Amino acid sequence: MGEQPIFSARAHVFQIDPATKRNWLPASKHAVTVSFFYDASRSVYRIISVGGTKAIINSTITPNMTFTKTSQKFGQWADSRANTVYGLGFSTEQQLQQFAEQFKEVKEAARLAREKSQERFELANPALSIAAPQLSQELSEERHSPPLLTVNGPGEEKLFRSKSAEVELTAEKERVKKMLSEGSMCEINLEAELFTLQDSNAKLVEALEEANSSVDEWKKQLAEYQEETDRLRDQVEDLEAQLGHPAAAQTGREELNRSLEELEALLSARDQEIHNLQSKKTDVSELEREREDATQRLQDLERRNTELEDRVQSAETTLASSREEREQAEVEVLRIIEALDVKICDLKDLRQSLEKLVDK
């Protein structure tokens, strides 16, 4: 039985720069799926993420790992086997919290799996399990044994370092290493948070610039729509004068006027939103939420623009149909005129015949 996914989330993936051990390097251009997998045959939990055909995360979870939230939407963990630090940027704080909770649960499950594996190993090797307490007892006795003293002659006593002192010195070294490691991790966390804030600010500035350029483009499109609307109005008035059917043309004109008013209202609302975004304080989390809202509004506006284009095309189709009807009406009028001409000729002939009869 292969590995089974137990949890998945979407996030931007980063890795610590192996050269500086300080800066983050993006491992994916876009948000990718990051999943927890469980291998029942080996009792192993892994975090895997694939970008295209390449595995950008392949991290085996151990009980010693810790997932640290360095900001509202960014978290990281160190993988000593892969000799790297992974960072994940989520779109919401809730997704980050869910991933952190899942990491904690999987880490605890990995610890229990390791303990069960050790128990099975001890049961399979009873000699080792029996020897282990004896070795532990000997080490304990040596650890609590008094310092050794030797006398090399009268008045020359030398105090040698005992094994307990060596143990204390080793523990002190480990404590210093742990403090240095924790300080380095705090520095990495601060660097990661700073990188996230800078990246968010850059994205927000880029979004504002794109919004401003989009507004200018919409203004140009609005001017083009107004010119096109004026031209269509003139054509509608001509058709009304020629065909004498103002009702249908009036309806098409009102539809175009409503479409133009809707577009002007959307453009005005967009200008107000841009002004509000530029006047607000640069709070990163608030600006990011507003950027998402602005993106949604931009998509809605593009959809409305598409609908307006469809309406303009429908109006053009209606005008084309009106032209065809006018041409058909002209043909019908010509046909009627020709028929009247024939009847007039017949009447003239009949009149001449009557006049001849009267003369006779």
UniProtKB/TrEMBL annotation:
Ranges in coiled-coil conformation: 201-332
Main subcellular location: cytoplasm
Compartment(s) of residence: Cytoplasm; Postsynaptic density
Domain of life: Eukaryota
GO MF annotation terms: G protein-coupled glutamate receptor binding
Keywords: Coiled coil, Cytoplasm, Synapse
GO biological process: G protein-coupled glutamate receptor signaling pathway
Domain annotation WH1: ranges: 1-110
GO CC terms of this entry: cytoplasm; postsynaptic density
Annotated Pfam families: WH1 (PF00568)
Family: Belongs to the Homer family.
This protein's name: WH1 domain-containing protein
Organism expressing this protein natively: Pleuronectes platessa (European plaice)
